[in-house]
Amino acid sequence: MSESHSVITIDGPAASGKSSIARLVAQRLGRTYVNTGNMYRAMTWAVLQTGIDPQDAEAVRAAAAGIVIDSPVVDGKTQVCIAGHALTDAELNSDPVNRAVSLIARVNEVRERLVADQRALVALGPLVMEGRDIGSVVFPDSPHKIYVDASAEVRASRRGAQGHADQIAERDRLDKQRKNSPLVIPAGATVIDNSHITLDQAVEQVIAALRLQ
Ligand code: DC
């Protein structure tokens, strides 16, 4: 997988600050930023539109099979589009999506589809891609892996400040315990503790770590 050398992977739990860090690192390095959480959120939004129960894995599988996510690049960042509709931040971060996304993301067929879509994005050029399994599963051969962590208290207060009702402890539990591609620190990743540093300091730490890797 030689293309993986052009992907900087950034993984970490919900509200660890990895999205803000990844977006700024991509800007600094002139790379395209890919938020894979938004791909799982888009799939969740579309599955919920069908009215099925997100706990029903069989129904999720059937609904997901007909959903295609496009990822056009706008302002250096991939958008998520379904049937020509670019999903808004409000749609991607709605309460129903927050509640259901980890249930949808644990269905094997959903993961296989989205992992294949994510690997295909290397055609866009050098990437910074963030998520839960990017360094461990999607691009395990990348030499540029970062894992962003923060304490549970700091993460809960950050998400609260964003105004979202988000059960991050429950999402973390599901994301870490699922059988397929659980959230782990990828082999070879540099771990950054983002609990008590500024965004700028976190970005500097990532850039410094990438130079050493
Ligand atoms: O990064 P986020 O919190 O927006 O991600 C939303 C959910 O999507 C997360 O709870 C688990 C899932 N996800 C995943 O399973 N794998 C990824 N690479 C990214 C997100």
SSE order and pairing:
Elements lengths: L6 E5 L6 H12 L2 E4 H14 L7 H9 L3 E2 L2 E2 L2 E2 L2 E2 L2 E2 L2 H4 L2 H11 L2 H13 L6 E5 L2 H5 L6 E5 L2 H10 L6 H10 L12 E4 L5 H14 L1
Parallel strand pairs: 1-8, 1-9, 2-8, 9-10
Antiparallel strand pairs: 3-6, 4-5, 6-7
The chain binds 2'-deoxycytidine-5'-monophosphate.
2'-deoxycytidine-5'-monophosphate (DC) binds next to helix 2, helix 5 and helix 9.
What report would you give on this structure?
The chain has 213 residues and is α/β, with parallel strands linked by helices. The chain has a 5-stranded parallel sheet with strand order 2-8-1-9-10. It has a 3-stranded antiparallel sheet with strand order 3-6-7. It has a single domain, classed as Rossmann fold, CATH 3.40.50. It starts with 6 loop residues before the first strand and ends with a helix. The protein contains 10 helices and 10 strands. The chain binds 2'-deoxycytidine-5'-monophosphate. 2'-deoxycytidine-5'-monophosphate binds at residues 14, 36-37, 40-41, 101-102, 105, 131-134, 171, 175. 2'-deoxycytidine-5'-monophosphate binds next to helix 2, helix 5 and helix 9.
Provide a concise account of the structure shown:
The chain has helices at 18-29, 36-49, 57-65, 89-92, 95-105, 108-120, 134-138, 152-161, 168-177, 199-212, and strands spanning 7-11, 32-35, 69-70, 73-74, 77-78, 81-82, 85-86, 127-131, 145-149, 190-193.
**How many helices in DSSP terms?**
10
Tally of separate domains: 1
The third-level CATH topology is Rossmann fold
What Rg, in angstroms, do the CA atoms define?
A: 16 Å
- Which CATH architecture? 3-Layer(aba) Sandwich
